[in-house]
Amino acid sequence: MTRKRVALVEDNRDNRLVIRAIFDGRYDLIEYATGVDALLGIQRDHPDLVLLDISLPGMDGTEVLRRLRADPTFAGLPVIALTAHAMRGDRERIFAAGFDEYIPKPIVDEDRLIAAVDHWLASSVVHHGR
Ligand code: MN
Q1: pTM, whole model, 2 decimals?
Q2: pLDDT at 52
Q3: What is the structure's pLDDT at 102?
């Protein structure tokens, strides 16, 4: 069985290392450090799911998502926000922007992260019929 491909968009190297370690052996990880790289890369690589940092230099995560969602090919792609500022009100903004889920940073609960990824990977299989 081929592993699912998860795109990680995160400008912080330490955060990338943490997630890489958590995902090791579980998913194939494709990493992008900027919004522009992510947008081009996702359109090229067609991952099964995206973990998308909100705060990125240049094009932020919300804008990356807006551009992805504007393309019917990626309208149903599961996208989980990574955010350090999940305050009251931010949650609503995150879902209003079109994210499927969010995971607060720093990532202290790796089981929660894996559960969220597995949940949305399963739902994308249903939606895409793969
Ligand atoms: Mn960031």
Answers
A1: 0.92
A2: 98
A3: 93
Give 83 Cα–ligand 1 centroid separation in angstroms: 8
**What's the CATH number of domain 5-128, 1.10.10.60, 3.40.50.2300, 3.60.40.10, 3.40.1370.10?**
3.40.50.2300
Which residue spans within the chain are E strands per DSSP?
Answer: 5-9, 28-32, 49-53, 79-83, 101-104
Cα–Cα distance measured from residue 39 to residue 74, given in angstroms and rounded to the nearest whole number? 11
Sign of the CA dihedral running 70, 125, 19, 13 = negative
Q: Ligand 1 centroid vs 15 CA: distance in angstroms?
A: 9
Task: Give the list of residues 6+ apart from residue 32 with CB closer than 8 angstroms, or none.
Answer: 7, 8, 9, 10, 38, 41, 42
Share of the chain above pLDDT 70, in %: 92
What percentage of residues in the chain have a pLDDT greater than 90?
Answer: 80
Q: Please write down the HEC assignment for all residues of 15-49.
A: HHHHHHHHHCCCCEEEEECCHHHHHHHHHHHCCCE
Ligand 1 center–CA 10 separation, angstroms? 6
